[in-house]
Amino acid sequence: MDTSSSRTRAQDLDREDPLAWARSEFNIPTKAEIASAQLNHPPPVLEAEKSVYLCGNSLGLQPKRTRKRIEQYLDTWAKQGVQGHFKPLEDSDLPTWLDADARAAKLMAPVVGADETEVAVMQTLTANLHLLMSAFYRPDINGTRRHKVILESKAFPSDHFAVETQLRHHGLSAETSMITIKSPSSEDNVLTTDDIKAVISEHASTTALLLLPGIQYYTGQLLDIKTITAFAHEHGIFVIWDLAHAVGNVPLHLHDWDVDAATWCTYKYLNGGPGCIGGLFVHQRNSTVTKSITDEKPEEGYNPRLAGWWGNDKKTRFVMANKFHPVGGAAGFQLSNPSVLDITSLSASLEIFEQAGGVPRLREKSLKLTAFLEELFQEMSPEDKELFRIITPSDPAQRGAQLSVMLAKGILGTVMKELELRGVIIDERKPDVIRVAPAPLYNTYTDCVFFIEAFSAALEVCRTSRP
Ligand SMILES: Cc1ncc(COP(=O)(O)O)c(C=O)c1O
Asked: For pyridoxal 5'-phosphate, which residues are the binding ones (predicted)?
């Protein structure tokens, strides 16, 4: 495959890229590192020694400043012990541990388009889903009025499990109360807004909750969050969004779109690190604390929830009284004191988002980068193109960074092995899909060309090794 003109085009685009500086903020694994079973290798000398990492949809790369921030945190713990909770240090720009969650919420709020009081950095995605459902999924347990939950038929398994077990927790069952949305026309279950509206309309009077992904993990499809939320609201349905693949990837305006609640993880495009602390959004109207809490009716004055001491008003959190008085806003849904190690790691990455001018600026590059990658796929030879098709919508408004590619049956293993041999990291969804995601913070146009060269070589191996 002759990619010389693509290489030249990519080099020009990389030179003109106003975000090019951001790549140097990240540790890009070298080819030697990803091929090795040992941790220690000499640092790379040439850019060409670096791997082609197009996997930010699964695990974002490590910002260089994460190590520095974590060392600062470790020093504080080593030298201040418990005082780290409340004692500001003149030569450290990290917040005290008591304020670490609030500072992280402040950095996170612009990423999701929310007021900082509407965001809490807490727990993990699935745990937050359960917490949100415990607060806002209040089914009529006689099963006559609003008891159903609508979700997509190919929902991420954790979301499916969370809904199914919530139903059982309320004495309901998936058979009677779980409605799954299936595309009537797309074999890949790419859903139109009308497909979703039709299911909402059909079950409008008996549905309590709609749970959808901002970006579908398998197909990479970006849903119209604003329109779908408004439509569900017209039918009196509460909407929770799973933003695992949308956060840090596409601009979000959760407050202005009137989203009820949402949750996300931070290890994908937000580069917080594996299993890092999650995020939660609760719209202002769902989290107000209106009355003073009385002994007679302690539950009045705020939306019900499963509570813990970290959701209590900071002013009385340490009084240690047994009367829960939540702080207003999303912070009132917190349970435990958060892992400051996690928050420190996440905040290091969020600093880069801030420095880059926020997600809308990243999206400008992301749109070009993913379109460039799509073009390269289209320019592949007819023999190569017989072995794959892109299942992510071609409309840029209906996707983020990721392109999902359906391979011909039986070649996934060979493709993945051949890519890895060539220093390319992407991810797979068995049996036949690969997901390729150029992240605008650290990927280049040249990465896309290297990927296509390796992919074409991998397909060639598949062809020659096929019976
Ligand atoms: C769409 C989606 N939902 C939920 C999850 C589960 O996240 P967690 O393990 O952080 O609860 C993931 C994890 O990758 C995901 O991609």
From this structure: 125-126, 156-159, 242, 245, 267, 309, 337
d(CA 3, CA 214): 35
Determine if ligand 1 sits within 6 Å of the CB of residue 125: yes
pLDDT tens for residues 147-192? 999 999 999 999 999 999 999 999 999 999 999 999 999 999 999 9
One domain for residues 366 and 294: no
Residue 83 lies in a domain: no
Of 345, 374, 399, the one marking the end of a domain is 345
CA of 272 to the centre of ligand 1 (A): 14
Query: DSSP letter string over 334-359?
Result: --S---HHHHHHHHHHHHHHHHTT-H
Q: Which residues are annotated as a binding site?
A: 125-126, 156-159, 242, 245, 267, 309, 337
Residue 374 Cβ inside 6 Å of ligand 1? The answer reads no
CB-facing half-sphere around the CA of 111: CA atoms within 13 A = 34
Domain count for the chain: 2
pLDDT at 164: 98
Higher pLDDT, 39 or 294: 39
The residue segments making up the domain with residue 215 are 100-345
The answer on 210 and 104 residing in a single domain is yes
Answer for the pair 270, 288: CB distance below 8 angstroms, yes or no: no
In a domain, 90, yes or no: no
Q: What is residue 444's predicted lDDT score, i.e. its pLDDT? A: 98
The ligand 1 atom at the shortest distance from the C-alpha of residue 129 is 11
Q: Give 425 Cα–ligand 1 centroid separation in angstroms.
A: 20
User: Considering the chain, what is the average pLDDT of its residues?
Assistant: 95
Tokens of 226: 């604003």
Note whether 341 and 374 are same-domain residues: no
404, 390 Cβ separation under 8 angstroms = yes
To test the ligand 1 pocket, which listed residue (55, 123, 126, 267) has its Cβ within 8 A of the most ligand atoms?
Answer: 126
CATH code (residue 434): 3.90.1150.10
Residue 78 placed within a domain: no
Residue 315 has pLDDT above 90, yes or no: no
Q: Summarize pLDDT for 41-100 with one digit per residue, the tens.
A: 777 777 778 999 999 999 999 999 999 999 999 999 999 999 999 999 999 999 999 999
For residue 420, is it within any domain?
yes
CA 415 to centroid of ligand 1, rounded, Å: 25
434 lines ligand 1 (CB under 6 A): no
